[in-house]
Design a protein that fits this description.
heterodimer; A: mainly beta; 4-stranded antiparallel β-sheet; about 0% helix; disordered C terminus; B: two-stranded antiparallel ribbon; two-stranded antiparallel sheet; 36 helices; about 45% helix
Chain lengths: ~325, ~950
């Protein structure tokens, strides 16, 4: 029953809207930090994938090639590649520098909701509405996936990958964890369509967001619930949930246009960031700093701790 | 030169010092190239045209012509004068220099053979010849001859007087001729000297016949030519063979370095003798082939190593007189026996076996019988008829085949199985399969079906004609079997052996079939055959089955042997009626549902399966393969009956739905009569309930409140639980269903929609847009269908609301169209609204209203999908256009309508409240709690 880790110092929370960027790509469907948190990619409903420096608000590059809105994106560990999943049923692998699509993986029968690289960016794991998780090999040229995990009974809304695990949250109300090392599949039932799953940083717990139910923190090994976080509104939309950089807080987007942050251990609502009026479409937490990316509508917002804002962004908050 | 005296002594100078230059003398200019000329003896210029092209050119620019041109020999008519046949030798083409003393064909004064001494010392001559062959400058000995003394010495003369003859040894005569003695005994015996080549051959034969009393001269001693080697030529070098070069013997092997074969020496002698009449000419390798030579020598012939001896041979035993220069006879004699056997070159490093290997044993061919005739004739094939049986017998006896297989038919009369039997092949195991058996059960069924249908059709056609026959009794049931029995009973009697089971899958039927066949065998009549059919079946079925049995029996007989050879049994059963099913199923959800409700996560909610990752995936993840030996990928599967009910049950998880349904039913009965459609995404019943009843109104109310107030400020902890349990009415699929079913009375709709009658033009599509909004409980079929589809904007929604009035009336067909609801799966993407609308509406628009803009997009997508599906492209397009139009209108009118919509909303909520039975106060209270 180990909670992730004791809090060493009061973890800071991103309370301050440091920057707001109009992405100009329709609705921002996904916003993801890169591996070191210096850049971010956004997937838009106008079929583009854009790379930003969110601290300066500069657009670095656009990646064109999807046939429909880009629903999720991820960066490789070495920042050399991006992958993205789109509503056009494809998963694309991009070269960051050239902006060209290196590969396109076709095979999903529906919108690709979620994509992830594995640790070495040799495999792209994608979850689709077609209720399958597919593992695409980036190394070889073979067009078909290495493996199809089709245990889900309904669309897969979220996929996460650790060094030896694949975590897939499905609309059938289950969180499935495929443990490659042990060769086992753990299926946890949470009762309502899962919208987002996350590993904690220490890899011991799993954060599960599901429709019309509180955010839940489950112990990875036993499946027991360690925490429950309520207050946000999630009734119909696929909303992201995040863990803060030190696993001290748990965050979730909400349909009421806010981002809710809870204390992980106590389960109390720590902060509510009014991001906008519409639902918060995408949420990402900086891997090492208390910086939060939130996207609503067509804008991308960067939130940080007020004092650190000067350091990171270099200009005043709007 | 300028060094000091001391140094001069030390220095050693080579060559001649250049003459010191005189003062004032000019340096000699080097002679330019064009002036460096060479003249021949007669002062003519010689042109040097390259060392590799022959040095100085001969003739005129290396031609036979002159500066004036080449003059052919003048023509002489053969009438007057015969043209003297001129045989052109090489000399005719030579320059004068070549014929000079130092030329290649020096012309000197020589003694002709006529004038040479007749009686030459043969021994000396021979020795000299040998020496000449070996000598550095070939032909010198020949020249020696020319200038040799013509007189013989006195010693020789004395010897001759004593009876000595040339070629004999000196000494007393010996009785027995030493075998190897070369110098011909025949010379003595016959008194005339044969040419050496001849004598050699004849000698051996005559050996044995020599009489005892004949004595022989002793062996002639050949003086060894002990000429010291004074030159720097290689060992065995010999210059141009004078006999070849000068005597013009063509076709000779061009080089014979070693006189081991000794032909050379013979030739030397012989040539000298018989070149007498010939002109002296020069031929040979060095000169190539002249234009007039008859034979084309291989002018490019090169010396090959095979022409050289590679081993030093032993000296002749017995007489050590001859070295490698020994005459041919010596060697050939000695090697006689071996060389006879082996003709050919012995490979390098090999030597002939001293002992001959034992000869292979050869068996003589069998002695043929006296009366054998080397012609074969084929026996006529005799039919097994009785008349020639004795002939057959004799034939068989003659062929040694006395085994009495006379009873067996001939080879050609056998069929395949009999042949196989004879060949000892194992008979095919099991029942000889029929084609029917190879068909799957399903296919068979289908065949039957088809046939049935065909028959049915036939019947239908025939019915009007022969109405007397009952509809369910096929004609075949009566007459056909009769015919068949007549026809086939004989054959069928031995057919239908017990191992033929055409209906093995259906044991009862098989049993019936067997009894049927049995009865046929016993010769029963068709009518009695009926008893073995299933009495429970209808008449028609029975008839059909009987027919089937007949066919099967016939078929088995006729096709048995043929088909069994064509087909083979499947080694592995591919089960048609089994299906792979995951071994482990996630067990029923209802337990888990309750566990979740009780927040008892853990064992209750967890399923654990064995799962086999792909090997490559493990590799890519740098993880050892957990099941290195397994070939399974994914969840291990088991085979189950395809059509097992449980299969389907497990696959679709029916238990949960059932239970849920029941649960819901109960709960609903408690709260209100609301037939709920169970769905996988159903949230717990309580929540649903709340959602259905309250939350909609709450959201409605909230929207209303929002419209009046500012957008909701974040409210924190107190309301969290509440809010959580009453999620806003963003509708999932179930929600919609529920909404549908919980739809309020028509009056309500009328009340809602009556006011916005102006938008009647908008199509039903429009309505579909709006429906998810909580304000309007989706009722009409379209709305239900598109439940997921989000709205574009609030204004749009309003328009939709307005339009819904018309289509809301036909409520009944809702359920049929429902399947479309599932088009969008799972939680939808959060709605994106265009920034413009957001700004316009600003704080006034409640969140639920702002959402639609994004939903609009969804809807479009879905529209597209649907168009694809339905192939109603045009129609859809039209609809879309309409929609857009209306949307635009709405946007324009948005501001105006805002207020009205609000009012409508309020009315909505109030009416809803009534229906749900919640008191307005209560609702307001809750709303307040919710409102931030």
């Amino acid at each position: 029953m180990a909670f992730p880790q004791p809090r060493l110092a009061p973890a800071e929370l991103p309370r301050h809207r440091a920057r707001s960027i109009e992405c100009g790509q329709g609705a921002v469907r996904a916003a993801r930090f890169n591996a070191d948190g210096n850049y971010c990619v956004t997937g838009g409903s106008d079929k583009t994938l854009k790379l930003w420096n969110p601290y300066k608000g500069t657009l670095l590059r656009s990646y064109l090639g999807h046939g429909y809105e880009v629903l999720d994106a991820a960066g490789s560990f070495d920042n050399s590649q991006l992958c993205s999943g789109s509503a056009d049923k494809t998963v694309a692998l991009w070269d960051v520098a050239t902006g060209q699509a290196v590969r396109k993986f076709r095979g999903h029968a529906g919108k690709v909701n979620s994509v992830q690289f594995n640790e070495e960016a040799t495999v792209i794991v994608s979850g689709s509405i077609d209720s399958s998780v597919r593992c695409w090999d980036c190394r070889s040229r073979r067009p078909e996936p290495v493996q199809v995990l089709d245990e889900a009974k309904d669309g897969v809304s979220s996929v996460k990958v650790s060094d030896h695990e694949i975590l897939a949250g499905s609309v059938d109300g289950r969180v499935r964890r495929y443990d490659l090392r042990a060769g086992e599949l753990y299926s946890d039932y949470v009762g309502s369509p899962v919208t987002c799953v996350c590993f904690t940083k220490d890899g011991q717990c799993v954060l599960v967001a599901s429709l019309a139910s509180p955010l839940r923190l489950l112990d990875k090994d036993t499946g027991e619930m360690l925490g429950e976080y309520r207050g946000h509104r999630s009734s119909a939309c696929r909303l992201d949930c995040v863990l803060s950089e030190r696993d001290a807080h748990v965050g979730c987007a909400s349909e009421d246009g806010a981002v809710y942050l809870w204390d992980l251990v106590e389960g109390s609502l720590a902060l509510r960031l009014p991001v906008g009026q519409g639902a918060v479409q995408a949420l990402a937490f900086h891997p090492r700093q208390p910086v939060l990316l939130a996207a609503t509508g067509g804008t991308l917002q960067l939130w940080d701790t007020g004092d650190a804002a000067g350091d990171t962004t270099g200009d005043a908050a709007p | 030169m300028a060094a000091s005296s001391d140094e001069e002594e030390d220095l050693v100078s080579y060559g001649r010092a250049l003459p010191a230059l005189h003062e004032g003398e000019r340096l000699k200019k080097p002679v330019p190239l064009q002036e460096q000329t060479v003249k021949d003896a007669k002062g003519r210029y010689q042109r040097f045209h390259g060392a590799f092209t022959g040095g100085f050119s001969a003739g005129y620019f290396n031609t036979v012509g002159t500066k004036e041109g080449w003059t052919p020999s003048s023509f002489i008519s053969s009438r007057q004068k015969r043209a003297d046949k001129t045989v052109l030798g090489p000399e005719d083409f030579m320059d004068e220099e070549d014929l000079s003393e130092f030329g290649i064909a020096p012309k000197d004064i020589t003694t002709t053979e006529d004038f040479a001494s007749k009686s030459k010392d043969r021994i000396k001559e021979k020795a000299r010849q040998l020496a000449g062959v070996v000598a550095a400058i070939p032909g010198t000995t020949a020249f020696d001859d020319l200038i040799g003394p013509s007189k013989i010495t006195i010693g020789v003369e004395l010897l001759r007087k004593m009876g000595w003859k040339d070629g004999q040894g000196i000494g007393p005569r010996i009785k027995r001729k030493p075998r190897r003695q070369k110098p011909d005994p025949q010379v003595k015996v016959y008194g005339c000297a044969l040419p050496p080549g001849l004598s050699e051959g004849s000698e051996d034969e005559e050996d044995e016949y020599q009489p005892e009393n004949v004595t022989f001269a002793p062996k002639d001693v050949m003086p060894v030519d002990l000429t010291p080697k004074e030159n720097v030529h290689g060992l065995g070098y010999k210059g141009l063979d004078p006999t070849q070069a000068l005597c013009g013997v063509p076709g000779r092997e061009h080089l014979n370095l070693f006189p081991g074969s000794s032909e050379k020496t013979d030739d030397l002698l012989g040539d000298l003798r018989h070149t007498k009449g010939r002109k002296l000419g020069i031929t040979g390798q060095a000169f190539g082939v002249g234009a007039l030579e008859e034979e084309d020598d291989d002018i490019y012939a090169t010396e090959t190593l095979s022409k050289y001896d590679t081993i030093l041979k032993d000296e002749e035993p017995g007489d050590g007189l001859y070295g490698w220069t020994a005459p041919k006879q010596y060697k050939s004699k000695k090697r006689f026996d071996t060389e006879v056997k082996y003709i050919g070159k012995i490979l390098d490093g090999f030597s002939l076996a001293s002992k001959a290997s034992t000869p292979n044993k050869t068996y003589p061919p069998p002695d043929l019988p006296r009366n054998y005739r080397p012609v074969h004739y084929f026996r006529p094939v005799l039919a097994a008829g009785s008349e020639n049986c004795h002939l057959r017998k004799t034939l068989e006896e003659s062929t040694g085949k006395l085994e009495s297989d006379t009873a067996q038919p001939s080879r050609h009369a056998l069929n395949a199985s009999q042949r196989g039997e004879r060949l000892g092949e194992t008979v095919l195991k099991g029942p000889a399969p029929s084609v029917l058996e190879y068909l799957s059960e399903k296919d068979r069924e289908r065949l039957k079906e088809v046939r049935k249908a065909a028959e049915q059709q036939m019947k239908v056609k025939m019915l009007p004609q022969q109405s007397q026959s009952s509809r369910f009794q096929p004609a075949s049931a009566k007459d056909a079997p009769h015919k068949w029995q007549m026809f086939w009973a004989g054959q069928l009697a031995n057919a239908g052996s017990s191992d033929f089971k055409p209906f093995a899958k259906n044991p009862e039927k098989q049993k019936r079939y067997e009894s049927f066949v049995q009865s046929i065998k016993q010769g029963q009549k068709v009518d009695t055959l009926e008893h073995c059919l299933d009495p429970n079946m209808t008449e028609w079925e029975r008839g059909r089955e009987q027919e089937e049995f007949f066919r099967a029996a016939m078929f088995y007989k006729s096709s048995n042997s043929v088909l069994s050879s064509r087909f083979t049994r499947a080694k592995y059963e591919d089960d048609v009626d089994k299906v792979e099913v995951p071994r482990d199923q996630e067990n029923d959800i209802d337990d888990k549902e309750s566990a979740v409700k009780m927040k008892m996560f853990g064992k209750l909610t967890r399923d654990k399966f064995e799962w086999h990752p792909e090997k490559l995936l493990c590799k890519r993840f740098n993880v050892p393969d957990p099941y290195p030996d397994s070939s399974i990928v994914g969840l291990p599967k088991v085979k189950r009956d395809k059509y097992s009910v449980f299969n389907f049950l497990t696959l679709t998880e029916p238990t949960t739905s059932v239970t849920q349904a029941t649960n819901e039913g109960n709960q609903q009965s408690n709260t209100r009569d609301k037939p709920k459609k169970p769905s996988r995404w159903d949230v717990s019943d309580k929540e649903k309930e709340k959602k259905d009843s309250i939350s909609e109104f709450i959201s409605l109310a909230r929207s209303k409140v929002d419209a009046q107030q500012q957008p909701p400020a974040p409210k924190t902890e107190e309301c969290t639980t509440e809010a959580n349990e009453t999620p806003p009415s963003e509708t999932t699929n179930e929600d919609k269903d529920q909404e549908e079913e919980s739809r309020p009375s028509m009056d309500l709709f009328k009340a809602i929609f009556v006011s916005s009658s102006d938008e009647k033009s908008s199509s039903s599509e429009e309505e579909s847009d709006e429906e998810p909004e909580p304000t309007v409980p989706a009722t009409n079929p379209e709305t239900a269908k598109q439940a997921d589809i989000p709205d574009s904007s609030s204004s749009n929604m309003q328009a939709n609301v307005a339009t819904t009035t018309e289509p809301s009336l036909p409520l009944l067909p809702v359920l049929k169209k429902e399947p479309d609801v599932g088009e969008e799966f799972g939680p939808r993407l959060p709605p994106a609204f265009s920034s413009g609308t957001v700004h316009q509406q600003g704080p006034v628009v409640p969140p639920s209203f702002t959402r639609p803009s994004k939903k609009e997009k969804h809807k479009k997508n879905r529209e597209k999908h649907r168009t694809k599906r339905d192939h109603k492209h045009k129609k859809e397009k039209k609809k879309k256009q309409k929609k857009h139009k209306t949307k635009g209108k709405h946007r324009n009118k948005k501001s105006e309508k805002e207020s009205s919509s609000d009012s409508e909303d309020s009315s909505d909520s109030s009416s809803d409240i009534d229906t749900t039975g919640l008191s307005p106060k209560e609702l307001l209270r809750r709303l307040r709690q919710l409102q931030p």
